[in-house]
Amino acid sequence: MTRRTLLSLGSALAALGAARPALAEETFEVTKSEAEWRKLLTPAQYAVLREEDTERAGSSPLNDEHRKGTFFCAGCDLPLYSSEAKYDSGTGWPSFYEPLPNAVGTKADWGLLGKRTEVHCRRCGGHLGHVFGDGPAPTGKRYCMNGLALVFRAA
Ligand SMILES: [Zn+2]
To answer: What domains lie within the chain, and their CATH numbers?
Structure first.
């Protein structure tokens, strides 16, 4: 398959995605059965990544991770965030002002608090957290992540 074919396939898929209801199941490059995910992940990681649970604020050791490096998806090991984009949001969850290119997908998430934007790994669909519009420069975005969904490796 040529790069051009891949690109047009990509835009066709993007168009399809836009036409579908927000809550429709997306398909992902990395798919596993529930049993396989349960084997791979700890129960707490499974609850966040596969069931969209939220870890307790302040519970992640990654809140205090300030070394240079990369944050990978705990489900499929895709690089998601650079330490360069990490900042202390004061929320108790690891926060970033931008993801790495082509790392995450988003969907509308309607809940008790109204509409939020859910953030997931674009490769395995694992739930990571939410993105809000009250972040710092240069993007003004706050990617509020569950530390359980991330694995940090120092550069
Ligand atoms: Zn992933």
So the answer is: 28-54+65-154 (2.170.150.20)
